[in-house]
DNA sequence: TATAATCCTATCGGTTTACTAGGTTTTAAG
DNA sequence: CTTAAAACCTAGTAAACCGATAGGATTATA
């Protein structure tokens, strides 16, 4: 299950991407428009800034803005930062690999190969969709 | 992330499927062979029985056995029972649908369409794999 | 009758989630 | 220079969930 954090983060990025001008967008505006708790959203925006998706400007008239073009932001990257691994099991994760305690050998594990297939299917979808693709969906 | 419950459940089903005869398999045997806490596994086996995947026989020489052929058990069904929804967001779940609090309209939600794609990709994989497919993977 | 198995209920410590509170700092506008 | 508006930061917290564990009750076999 996708956490609310990730969901809100994606919505916020999409909201910013939808604006034509590149003027900073305030968290308060996004929180109102997208029905997200403002304080919670603030912490998410901060994380998106620290991980290089957003820039920010402080003070009056400040806000957040995209650093890259929406078309260059793959959803895999966004989800990995906000949610963590895309794989359903750590032992098939490309970016967050962890060995299972119980499995003596991954090659003979019945769950392993199945989850690799699921992972690859998800990666295909999330890797082909960019922020631009999802921002202008309607 | 797949819960351990689901992971253990799949492993247990695969273990039983691998046996040629249809004699009941004890939870204790599975728990030893697959390195799963016995008490925890017991509760999982019970759930698998109540949901119609397994039959059971009590008392000495008892255990659990498959009710259907492994080739007839789709992994979608197993995961839905043990884990719940396959979708990453309730609002795109086929079997566990729930409306989002924040979304006024799913059709204009940027997350929605993306998650439908992910869901469908996962469903493809999990629907095409049966217990037989994953039990005899090596 | 002893033993081995499932079945059942309850509990529990730890972690995560989704916030909330309460500020500090920076900047622009008046 | 003052005020307001914005990001930034730290901490805490209630609730839910997870992965077990405990302790037995029930049932069947030998």
UniProtKB/TrEMBL annotation, chains A, B:
Keywords: DNA-binding. PROSITE patterns: HTH_RRF2_2. GO terms for molecular function: DNA binding; DNA-binding transcription factor activity. The keyword DNA-binding applies. Pfam families: Rrf2 (PF02082). InterPro entries: Tscrpt_reg_Rrf2, WH-like_DNA-bd_sf, WH_DNA-bd_sf. One of its GO terms (cellular component) is cytosol. PANTHER family: HTH-TYPE TRANSCRIPTIONAL REGULATOR ISCR (PTHR33221:SF5), WINGED HELIX-TURN-HELIX TRANSCRIPTIONAL REGULATOR, RRF2 FAMILY (PTHR33221). NCBIfam families: rrf2_super. This is Rrf2 family transcriptional regulator. It comes from Christiangramia lutea. The lineage of its organism: Bacteria, Pseudomonadati, Bacteroidota, Flavobacteriia, Flavobacteriales.
């Amino acid at each position: 299950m996708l956490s609310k954090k990730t969901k809100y983060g994606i919505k916020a990025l999409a909201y910013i991407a939808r604006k034509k001008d590149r003027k900073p967008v305030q968290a308060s505006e996004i929180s109102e428009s997208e029905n997200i708790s403002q304080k919670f959203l603030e912490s998410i925006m901060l994380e998106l800034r620290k991980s290089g998706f957003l820039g920010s400007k402080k003070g009056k008239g400040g806000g957040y803005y995209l650093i890259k073009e929406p078309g260059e932001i793959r959803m895999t990257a966004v989800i990995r930062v906000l949610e963590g691994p895309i794989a359903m099991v750590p032992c098939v994760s490309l970016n967050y690999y962890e060995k299972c305690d119980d499995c003596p050998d991954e090659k003979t594990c019945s769950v392993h190969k199945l989850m690799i297939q699921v992972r690859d299917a998800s990666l295909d979808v999330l890797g082909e969709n960019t922020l631009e693709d999802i921002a202008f969906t309607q």
